[in-house]
Amino acid sequence: MTTLITWPDFMNPGRLWALAALPLLIIAYLVILRLKGRTGIRFTNTSVLAAILPKQSQWRRHVAVAMSLCSLVALAMAWARPLGVENVPRERATIVVVIDASLSMKATDVKPNRLDAAKEAATAFIDSLPAKFNVSVVKLSGNPSIVMPPSTDRGATKRAVGAIQLEESTAIGGAIETALKAIRQAPPGDGNQPAPGLIVLLSDGMSNVGESPLQAAEAAKKAEVPVHTIAYGTDNGYVDVEGQRERVAPDKQLLRQIAQTTGGQAWAADDASQLSQVYSEVKSEVGFEQVKKERTAQYALYALAFATVAALGAVSMAARWP
Questions:
Q1: 8 A C-beta contact, residue 125 and residue 117
Q2: How far is CA 303 from CA 14, 67, 68, in A?
Q3: Which of 7, 62, 103, 136 stands the most exposed, by the fewest C-beta atoms within 10 Å?
Q4: What would the pLDDT profile of 131-140 be if each residue is shown by its tens digit?
Q5: What's the chain look like in SS3?
Q6: How confident is the model at residue 4 (pLDDT cuts 50, 70, 90)?
Q7: Are residues 186 and 197 in contact, defined by beta-carbon separation less than 8 angstroms?
Q8: What's the pTM value of the predicted model, to 2 decimals?
Q9: pLDDT of residue 89
């Protein structure tokens, strides 16, 4: 992943006009250097002159001036009160865990089988969430249903996960709609404001009944509810249905599209250990939110550091060392 350096936001961007002095100072410095180069010194005894005025390193002067200018830039930016983005723990949220319970989840490419491994990892994930988070559980099958409405009762939530049984078909679109209904059931907080909602959807197959998953994803996007998806199982997984062996590979492309549409993240897990790791990454996504905070002190520190280097450079040029 490529990290891009972006220009920060400012609380008082109008104060950045002070940066207009920077090019004027640079031009003035270059003019002074040019004029100085044309100035001659009338002194016949150059050996005496060298003893009186030892040769100075040009690079020290340039570094000192550059650091001074950098200090001015940092001070101007600090004056404009820059803002940075930080991840802070969410105080509350409603998390809907959607677990695929279609017949493909009995595949044993993940030991002991996909469903049992998914239940165990989901239970550990629920335990790791902050106590104030409401957690709901939705069963994904041909007829998705809310098996646990939003609650902070972790014991009841985990029992609901453990009670999930296999059913026929896979309706991913219907499961997203059901999860959105579950979020609307969450009790409001102070000021009657709803908590932010997030959906974590685990599926191991292709949607084969119900409404379009991408249409449901658009509904989640409109509701500002990101859907984090987990494509679970191996591409070589299979189940035996009525004497016929059927491949049950997860539809990674569809799940990735759902996540991208809603502003969520998409992961893939081939075994139980990977699934546990994915849930750890999901926790970091749902447990924190990005908040803008003022960083004036940080830029003032930059200005102090640049000014210190500039001062040391000026002292080194003025001092006559033994």
A1: no
A2: 20, 9, 9
A3: 7
A4: 888 899 999 9
A5: CCCCCCCCEECCHHHHHHHHHHHHHHHHHHHHHHHHHHCCCCCCCHHHHHHHCCCCCHHHHHHHHHHHHHHHHHHHHHHCCEEEEEEEECCCCEEEEEEECEHHHHCCCCCCCHHHHHHHHHHHHHHHCCCCCEEEEEEECCCCEEEEEEECCHHHHHHHHHCCCCECCCCHHHHHHHHHHHHHCCCCCHHHCCCCEEEEEEECCCCCCCCCHHHHHHHHHHCCCCEEEEEECCCCCEEEECCEEEECCCCHHHHHHHHHHHCCCEEEECCHHHHHHHHHHHHHHHCEEEEEEECHHHHHHHHHHHHHHHHHHHHHHHCCCC
A6: very low
A7: yes
A8: 0.64
A9: 55
Amino acid at site 26: I
Q: Which two three-digit tokens encode residue 220?
A: 């989640």
Rounded to the nearest 5 degrees, what angle is found at the Cα of 74, between the Cα atoms of 73 and 79?
100
Token pair belonging to 150: 């939003």
Q: In this structure, what token pair is assigned to residue 264?
A: 């969520």
| Residue whose structure tokens are 């997860």 | 250
**Is residue 319 predicted with pLDDT exceeding 60?**
no
